[in-house]
Amino acid sequence: MTGQSLPSAFPPSLSLYYSPKACSLASHIALEESGLAFEAVAVNIRNQENRQADYLRLNPSGTVPALGIGGQILTESQAILTYIADLAPESQLLPRPGTVARARAHEWMNLISSSLHVAYRSIFRPQTYGGEEAAGMAAVQAQGGKNLARYLELIESRLGDSTYALGETFTVVDAYLFVFYLWSFDERVQCGLPARPRYAALAQRVAARPAVRKAVARERAVRAYDLPPHIVMEA
User: Fold this and answer.
1) Which residue among 33, 100, 125, 160 sits deepest, i.e. has the most Cβ atoms within 10 Å of its Cβ?
2) Is the pTM value of this prediction over 0.90?
3) Comparing C-alpha atoms, which of 77, 112, 111, 83 is closest to residue 97?
4) Can you give the pLDDT at residue 8?
5) Would you say 31 and 84 are in contact if contact means Cβ atoms under 8 Å apart?
């Protein structure tokens, strides 16, 4: 009705700005799992599309993921994943607010974003921390490899024997972990990494989900990135 606001339950218009196989894949998976309607907009960071003027006007940080919510832009993976989960509570993508399980979910996502992601960035973009000199970059990469191995061991021990990270229900935590499992097979990771059978099993279970296959297929149509040989994306 003219002049009245829509009910709060009315879903907003959503647009996900993502780059293939970037950390934005977690948000891409979460949206597919949620059942919410959204537009997927590719911003290929390997082609520096995130540094183009149009995208910087939309998102001055130039990062992905970014989620358009009506006329607003939300950035940072944990914020986006939480928002998606809360927008579609029936999908059970996060435990209820106020529960220990909810806190555990954020504990996981903080570990991933503040520690695991940073270790990878040290390897992929060492100049961010060590400057442009070769010796500085080499030192950052070497330490990044050590940190990555340590965090992968920690994740392996925390996963336990449950089907998913928080138990028997798939959540956005699993989508987030899936991305960084894929990254461990990136050709730029030259350091030796520990065995991670629980993490591998989790990744395989996540990869088998129809919503995950749909998100990955959409991304690989933009850039045909490789997957580990044991991660099978069936049609």
Assistant:
1) 33
2) yes
3) 83
4) 47
5) yes
